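A further point concerns the way the authors explain their paired sequence and structure data. Nothing conveys this as quickly as seeing an actual entry. An entry of this sort, consisting of the sequence and the corresponding backbone structure tokens, reads as follows:
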Amino acid sequence: MASKRLNLTPNVVKEATTLAIKGTEGIEDFCDKLQPYLVLRVRGHVASWLVKTRTNSIKIGSALPPAKEARIPERRKRASKSGDEYLGLREARDKAKREWAKMGSSVDAPEEKSGWTWGELVEEYKKHISEMREDSSGRPIYPSAETQSDVRQIFARPAVAKHADRPLSGLNEEWFETVQEELHRTHKYDGYRKFRAYGQAALNWASAFKRRESGLPGRKWWLLAEKRRRTAKEVEKKIERDKALKRKKKDFTVKHLGMLLAEHERFCASRAGNERISPGVRWGLWWDSLTGHRRGSGTWIAREDVEFKDPRAEPGWGLATWQPNVMKTQNPFTLPIPPLGLHIVRCCMRDWKRAAERAGLWKRESKWVFASRVMQSETGDIAVSGSALANHIRNMRGLREGNHRDVLRGIPPFSMHIIRSTMGDHILDETELPPGTASLVIGHEIAGDRRNELDRVGQTGKRWYFQAQRIPEKTKAMELWADALLKAFLDAGGIYPE
């Protein structure tokens, strides 16, 4: 007879039921730490829930779901059907409490839960960052899809996930350092860096806001864990990566961006049927090239956030505002949009509607200008993502299955993120605009592009337009950039997109 004392989790139950289907020669007991009287016993082809004390034990149900139990031949099942009601883990815990109380034993009283396990902390923290919250000053913090993805990935690493059943009360700085070391070894410096950042953030949150439930002590041992540095080889590789990125940014100019858009238009025109490029991707590449936004947020612009007329600007100009929930800074960001940009918006909405009608989805509406043609299972209606545009570039490079022809020969290697550097460098180096303008347009401080600190004003009328968002300065930069982009496109043989 083999016995294990552990925290019963869905994974443990799954392991036990799999063992029962295969069959055992002896008895395997999985004894719960949280409720010491609850036992999951595997004997032969049977997986049973038991309540055990020092003087007695009773069967309260079966752990085998009916679908799995049906796979076991009748001749291999036990004759006794007593207590064969199927119970999931939660139902088994509830019933075990009641049955144990009826047995009236005081010897094997259930232990009070001392706090969360590491796995429970991870789940609670993931839930926390997926909801709206606020910082210490009351400023709202919007859920970030990128942060949630990073947290899921780093906590799912084997070096971290294998500790899911360990109580937080039994962890310390030595444990934290051991995990850091293993992640550094298996997933390089970034693996360590992300675990340290998100692991400490999760523990800080639980200590501050879930002290009783988590059971974390007053001593914040996770802050005492040693930091790590890149190894000599990692430093050398980082230097090489930085040099390569700098070369890419220098080599990819507005001329090459114009060539890219010209080839992009020809590529889109050559695709038909199921290979047709979606409107969101076709026009999204134009939009990202014009606005210089980050890869992940450029196309996340809602229809209601586009103003087709700006009463304070020249005729034909509009405004587009990215809301805080899609911005890394968590602040709204507004750009003046030239006639070319408004043309892109109108064309995308027109083509998306036609594509929806062609697919028999004529009733479908979308809140996004650059709407995806697929619905996401959890969030439903979404905008075209940066990864979709990156995959489109790879497709034109001949790097995707089914297409091995590189139509971007002659265009230096680049990424979607480099486009914003191209835009910023062009405004900074090729125009006579005042210092600081390039940083304003791309919403990111460029080295050597000095400007005064913006006035801290509210979003009201002219103050917001002129001071907080600095629309006049942005308008001059957008006009020059749009002209340069369109000229490069026409010089590359492109025809004004319709």
